């Protein structure tokens, strides 16, 4: 952690959290304990129960939950993925238009436990009025939608903004991003201009988790760089990587040779023009296991600081757990208790036996 000067240590009346040692002057008979949340007996709180919900993709960046400060309502956008195995050609991406359709469904809750999937009057399927709100045969596939509420936006039609992954009708599987705005988090209008991410243009990794820094009024996003797997190596560039298989090599030496998933950050003042993504967190070869990678990280503004929820991907077992990270400025990140799991998977046979993640900042309800 970088040294903090008197300016950084001026905390005024903001609540302080002991994620790091920045404000600790001395310690006597004191230790730090990392606590984990207790899971509710009500889980899982959203389940597939509609005929138009094919594969409900609640993992990684496949869904997003956020609180509406104007209404107090909690919104959820989640992906319904219709996949035709018979049409998929060998080696073709899972999300290619020829065999996949991905759409965003909507649900809401007032307490985070009881969720309602209302008929929205936006899309019908087989005679049913559905809760599908984004992604059509005419427009294309929409998935990995990440929404941000902007309290500083003067245009009420753009109070909510979102970045999403897009596949045009008949399109290939290249990961391109698009942006949309909404007055209510339900009805979305794509921007005419595609977002750009430095030299990448509208191409980016398939994970994108955004937030608004209220201090600087800057949008920040934690994501993937599309070149992050192109570490220098002796084999040819067309070598087929098989993650966790005998042909996979973990290049984990210097930071510029890491080819595992890691966390990149990009920033924007207008939500459309973003900076070149830069690496902010990567697995540590002295701490993390050979097959551990950082799939994504969700930022949360908390008392003038930032808390990060890292989805750690254990590649050999194909499982996820969650660790914590912290930043005082939203730019420089360090892990809290590196290597220690904060949110773990459930027991054998449970709904979260294999994967858990935090895809959106926790919503405060009551106390």
Low-confidence spans: 241-257
Mean pLDDT across residues: 87
- Percent range for β-strand residues: 25-35%
| Alpha carbon gap, first and last residue | 31 Å
Biggest sheet statistics: 6 strands, antiparallel
- What integer value in Å does the Rg equal? 21 Å
Oligomeric state of the chains in view: single chain
Helical stretch tally: 0
Record field, number of beta strands? 22
How would you classify the helix and strand content by structural class? mainly beta
User: How much helix is in the residues?
Assistant: under 10%
- Overall geometric form: globular
Order of helices and strands: EEEEEEEEEEEEEEEEEEEEEE
Gist of the model:
This protein is mainly beta and 367 residues long. The chain has no helices and 22 strands.
Task: Supply the key terms.
single chain, 367 residues, mainly beta, six-stranded antiparallel beta sheet, 33% strand, globular
Could you describe the 3D structure shown?
Mean pLDDT is 87; it is low at 241-257. The strands form six sheets. Strands 1, 2, 3, 4, 5 and 8 form a six-stranded antiparallel sheet that branches. The chain has a four-stranded antiparallel sheet with strand order 9-10-11-12, with no helix packed on it. Strand 4 (100-109) and strand 5 form a beta hairpin. 0% of the residues lie in helices and 33% in strands. It has 367 residues and is an all-beta fold. It contains no helices and 22 strands.
